[in-house]
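Please check this record.
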Amino acid sequence: QVQQVESGGGSVQAGGSLKLSCVASGYINRNCEMGWFRQVPGKVRELVSIISHDGTTTYADSVKGRFTISQDDGKNTVFLQMNSLNAEDTAVYSCRMSSGNFCQAIYWGQGTQVTVSS
């Protein structure tokens, strides 16, 4: 059983910064990718950033140069540092973690709201 809790969301003016955290309990396969996704009402959930066990990172084009994903040494926590926020970043941000020998079981947190005022 895996449980994840996101925190760090809130309201910020355009140009500001926020740092999101996601802490997992239960068994996580630390060789699996961890990442952040976001979703707004009426739209599909989209990838924001992914980090692999070896530190390799992937970013959506819309956030490159502004967001940075990282993880703690124990790899039970994933962070998302968000800088130069704009109104288009407004969404519910959710973290994704996996378990199983082949990362076949995917778990989502409840999400944290990020609202950027222009």
